[in-house]
Amino acid sequence: xxxxxxxxxxxxxxxxxxxxxxxxxxxxxxxxxxxxxxxxxxxxxxxxxxxxxxxxxxxxxxxxxxxxxxxxxxxxxxxxxxxxxxxxx
Length: 89
Known about the structure:
Blueprint: H1 21-31, E1 36-39, H2 40-45, E2 53-56, H3 64-88
Parallel strand pairs: 1-2
């Protein structure tokens, strides 16, 4: 994945992972890092941590063909739900 210049090490955690302040601080010390590069979502979870955070802003761009597939899936599922609700009444 893309990382900006100056990154001294990588330490990936899975989505929704628990952030252990002591463990992250130790890893930063091992690597000689003076800040931790995180997403906006993860920065919220680390606000009280005792080290500086650098926040990277991520952008998502979805191609038109995928929007069409998403819209089709929503329509199909909505139709199933409406039919199910109609049959239950």
